[in-house]
Amino acid sequence: MVIGFSGGPDSVFLLEVLLKLREEFSLELSLAHINHLLRGEESDGDETFVRCVAKRLNIPCFVRRQSMQEYAKAHRIGEEEAGREIRYTFFNEVAEETGADKVALAHNLDDEIETFMFRLMRGTSLKGLEGIPVRRERYVRPILNLYKGEIMEYMHKNNIEYRIDSSNLKADYTRNSIRLDLIPEIEEKYNRNFKEKIANLMEEIGEVNSILKVDYKRFLREDALEWQEIEVLTDYEKRKILNSYLTHYGVEVSRKKLDSILAVMKSGGSKELSLGKKMKLKKEYNKLYVSVDSENCIDDNLQVELKVPGEARFGRYRVRAVAGSCSVSGRESFAADIPPGSVLKIRRRQPGDRITISDKGATKKLKDIFINNKIPKEAREEIPIVTLEEEIVWIAGVRGNERYRVRKPDENSIKLIVEEGNFSERGEE
Fold first, then answer.
1. Integer Cα distance of 311 and 193 in angstroms
2. Where is the signal peptide, in residue numbers (predicted)?
3. Which of the residues 31, 63, 318, 345 has an alpha carbon 20 to 30 A from that of 424?
């Protein structure tokens, strides 16, 4: 079991709990810590604390130093979202490297209530108002039923050392403002038992959702939905089915988009709607299915050469090999130990493909990596697979081969970068 370990009171408490259960459940524990480089000496102090805890307990410790701000800028997303992507990518990699069955996270009941308020204000569905799941795939949250106050009481009573993240004390981010300003004001002015009421409501919403659950696969025939069977259902059920079906293809879904689709479907006849990303939703007779633009289809046997440094087109992707330390970071790039002058080959995935996922030489099937990263089946066929002398160096935009990874990129490094788009229209950059 890998523990997402910040060094804060929640993660330290979680470690304490799992240490007490270690013998009973034969747990093999590892710590995974992210240093987001946000708070200078304070962040480095957190990292030192984590390493000391691991050394004292003789537990393996994995640390990644990655700037949340740089990642957010490179990917044009908010810093909170960037932090989440960095954490889950790292946790998945550590789990794969250690062969862990589970990744334990230290979310508590206060975190659940903050998530409820956050989603309520931003807009969400009944599913979103369930809160944080106790278990999803390899992730588990063993202390989700405990309030923050209960955790702090235990920590202080037993004189257990932990770190304080000063950024959590500032209302700069929406979640922090909800925790520091909104909830305390509601408790003071309107209902001191507000958190308990919200917790009860989330539990009830979860129970209702389990009753209203609709399995879209019941209506699936060879990747197409049988619209004649769906047509007799309520609009709520239709939206649930469409939401699950489109999400499977990696389509971003909103209530507005679903209502637009339903309005078009009611008019009868053959229909075709653009979903973006070169995908269309088509209705022919009683079949509803997603179609990928054929102009970007890639021949099974196609192989493209990429000279280092240089660039090459592969379907709707452009892959570049750039010499020197490049500002692009995250999944869209990979710093690889490849000599200049090498000739890489880019191809589609093939049955039985594997990639090295640890320094010790452990490998994993690409199929399993795609599943773990929730990449839709159709998208997997288009992803560039970059190879050197038949060995996979990089699954573009997904993960790199640990044998080729450069830990500290410098001016002598080669950075592989993948971009998606219509480059013939954009021109050379």
1. 60
2. none
3. 345
Greater model confidence, 69 or 377: 69
| CA 97 – CA 122 distance, rounded (Å) | 36
Q: pLDDT averaged over the chain?
A: 84
Is 8 known to sit in a ligand binding site?
Answer: yes
Q: Pick from 41, 63, 42, 39: which is nearest to 51 by CA?
A: 63
- The tally of CA atoms less than 13 A away on the side-chain side of residue 234 is 6
pLDDT digits (tens, 9 = 90+) for 328-378: 445 678 888 898 889 999 998 988 899 999 878 888 999 889 888 877 766
Q: Is 291 annotated as a binding residue?
A: no
Question: At residue 315, does pLDDT exceed 90?
Answer: no
In angstroms, rounded to a whole number, what is the distance separating the alpha carbons of residues 296 and 365?
A: 25
Entry field: residues in the chain: 429
d(CA 259, CA 238): 10
User: Both tokens of residue 241?
Assistant: 């089915």
Q: Between residues 76 and 14, which one has the greater pLDDT?
A: 14
Contact by Cβ (8 Å): 379, 250: yes
CATH 3.30.450.40 fits 216-292, yes or no: no
Backbone angles phi, psi at 274, to 5 degrees: -80, 135
| Out of 52-56, 123-127, 238-242, least confident range | 123-127
pTM beyond 0.70: no
Q: Which of 9, 64, 58 is nearest to 29 (CA)?
A: 58
Confirm or deny that 299 is annotated as ligand binding: no
Which helix or strand (DSSP H or E) is residue 425 part of?
A: helix 423-426
C-alpha–C-alpha distance, residues 364 and 256, integer Å: 40
Q: In 3-state terms, what secondary structure has residue 280?
A: strand
Which helix (H) or strand (E) is 320 found in, with range?
Answer: strand 317-323
397 is in an annotated binding site: no
Distances (CA, A) of 77 to 22, 47, 270, 353: 39, 25, 37, 32
Q: Which residue has the higher pLDDT, 387 or 246?
A: 387
Q: Any idea which fold 2-106+141-169 has?
A: Rossmann fold (3.40.50)
Structure tokens of 346?
């880019």
Find how far residue 355's CA is from the centre of its chain. Answer: 20
pLDDT in tens, 18-56: 999 999 999 999 999 999 887 888 889 999 999 999 999
Q: Is 11 annotated as a binding residue?
A: yes
Q: What is the pLDDT of residue 429?
A: 26
Select from 137, 82, 79, 149 the least CA-distant residue to 111.
149
- For the chain, which residues make up each domain, given as ranges? 2-106+141-169, 216-292, 303-426
